[in-house]
Write a structure and sequence with these properties.
This protein is of the alpha+beta class. It folds into 2 domains: 2-85, no CATH class; 93-161, OB fold (Dihydrolipoamide Acetyltransferase, E2P) (Beta Barrel). It contains 3 helices and 5 strands; from the N terminus they run αααβββββ. The chain has helices spanning 2-21, 31-51, 56-85; strands spanning 100-105, 112-117, 124-130, 141-147, 152-156. Strands 1-2-3-5-4 form a 5-stranded mixed barrel. Strand 1 (100-105) and strand 2 (112-117) form a beta hairpin. Helix 1 (2-21) packs antiparallel against helix 2 and helix 2 packs antiparallel against helix 3 (56-85). The termini are far apart.
Length: 162
């Protein structure tokens, strides 16, 4: 019990340092796992000591075994599902190709402007270049033709094609 409290206090003050030291092991040294396991070990140790006549070494062994089982259960039924459920509502740049938007800052023929794209995941604005190397005025509906690291390449959208 006191060990769990000491680890919680150390983690509070030195958490960033410990994250750096155990960077590759962060999935297995998840605070939920560590504190949950230590709490179960401490609680089962108290219960075994109070309600059994086991030798202290056997009590420690059983407590660690119960803690290991708790670690396994917490990891497989809490940590993994929470990690898999963690989803971003943003879309990647590659997913922007083919999206329809509107010019919010005029896109010059040989320069950059800005476009606004709406999606079910939220709206965003992106730096844009003209795919056809023609000026595209503010308020014009566009389609994203190509995506690069620095900008999206857009072309005017003919409403007749819709």
């Amino acid at each position: 019990m006191w060990g769990s409290l000491a680890i919680a206090i150390i983690s509070l003050f030195l958490g960033d340092l410990l994250d750096g030291l155990f960077e590759g092991l962060d999935e297995f040294l998840n605070p939920l796992l560590l504190f949950g396991t230590l709490s179960v070990i401490g609680g089962s140790g108290v219960l075994f000591t109070k309600y059994s006549s086991f030798h202290p070494f056997v009590t420690l062994l059983f407590s660690v075994l119960v803690g290991a089982a708790a670690y396994f259960l917490i990891y497989h039924f809490l940590v993994i599902p929470m990690a898999n459920a963690e989803a971003s509502t943003s879309i990647s740049m590659a997913d922007l190709e083919g999206k329809i938007g509107e010019v919010i800052t005029t896109v010059p023929a040989d320069g950059m402007g800005e476009v606004f794209i709406e999606s079910p995941n939220g709206s965003r604005s992106e730096t844009a270049k003209s795919f056809d190397e023609k000026e595209i005025k503010q308020g014009t509906r566009i389609v994203i033709v190509q995506v690069s690291k620095e900008a999206v390449y857009v072309s005017t959208l003919d409403d007749e094609l819709l």
